[in-house]
Amino acid sequence: MSLIRPIIAGAMTLLALVSPAMAETLNLRVTGGQISDSGDTLNVELARQSQRDFATFTQLHVGQRMAIMLDDKVLISPMLRGPIFASSGQLSLPLLLSPEEVVALRDRLGSGKLFLRVTAPAQ
């Protein structure tokens, strides 16, 4: 009986910490991709674990707006209409990148060291 009270208190604390009002952030490892010469379209391929994590993340946040970011810059902020199970995707970038940024991003895509950060609900 004396063990039940701390367990219940711990469970209540955990529930408070995972409140839907709190933003959740996920880092996705990009293993490959391409960017258009004009910098307005980005194709990405996710690592297997990132694919699974992204599928779970989008299932949990259907109906919310998420932000997809690169280097703390929001690339897009779509509304999640349903879970996303794809291993690759195409992002239409509303902000055009400079030719130098396109070259730098192309190099990072080829290195396998590119990460996208996803946050929901979007801030």
UniProtKB/TrEMBL annotation:
Residues 39-92 form the SecDF P1 head subdomain domain. Keywords: Signal. It comes from the Bacteria. Residues 1-23 form the signal peptide. InterPro entries: SecDF_P1_head. It holds the Pfam family SecDF_P1_head. This is SecDF P1 head subdomain domain-containing protein.
